[in-house]
Amino acid sequence: MPTTRRQFLSLAGGMTVAGTIPIVTLRPIEATPAMLNTAIRNVVGEAQIHTGRVKLDIPPLVENGNTVPMTVSVASPMTADDHVKSIHVFNEKNPQPNIGNFYFGPASGRAQVSTRIRLADTQKVVAIARLSDDTFWQIAADVVVTLAACTEEMN
What pLDDT score does 91 carry? Predict the structure, then answer.
C-alpha cells in the first residue's frame, strides 16, 4: 500500500519534533577530590609529580568566584634542550576539574600564563608543568571564595 500524503507529513513532522528535543546529560554539581586526582592522572599518567619549579600567583581570598585572576609561571631557559612543554591547571570542586591546558615550545620565550578563572567554591587549585625531559612539577594553592561561581540558585 503506498504512503499517503497525510501519512508522509505526519511522519516528517514527528521526525522534525524528535530532532529538536535536546539531549540532557547529567553531571555532578560539584567535583570531588577523586575527580581531581583522575583528571591529573589523565594528563601525567603514572609519572611521578615533583613539588617546586612552578609558581602559582592567585589571591588566597576572593570576593567573587566568577573572575579570579591567576598567573602560572615556570622558571626555564626555554631552549631547545630545556623548555616547558605544557602547563595544566586543575581545581578541586568545579564541575569540570581541568581548568585549562597550555602548550609551549622553545620559541615561546617564557613559560607563563595569565588568565581569569571561575571557582565554584572555596577549594584547592593545582598547576602542573611538563618539562622537555618529561618530568612533571606542581604547586597547589588554597583559595577562599566568599561568593561562589559555577552555580545557579533556583527561585
Answer: 93
Quote the CA–CA distance of 152 and 29 in Å, as a whole number.
10
* Number of separate helices (H) and strands (E) present in the chain: 2, 9
SS3 content of the chain, % helix, strand, coil (to 5): 20, 40, 40
Cα 58 to Cα 26, 99, 113, 121, 129, distances in angstroms: 31, 14, 12, 15, 16
Mean pLDDT by 10 residues, the chain (155 residues): 74 63 54 86 94 95 92 93 95 90 92 93 94 95 84 53
Distance CA 55, CA 46 (A): 23
Instruction: Write the CB contacts of 155 (distance below 8 Å, at least 6 apart in sequence).
Output: none
Beta-ladder partners of 111:
74
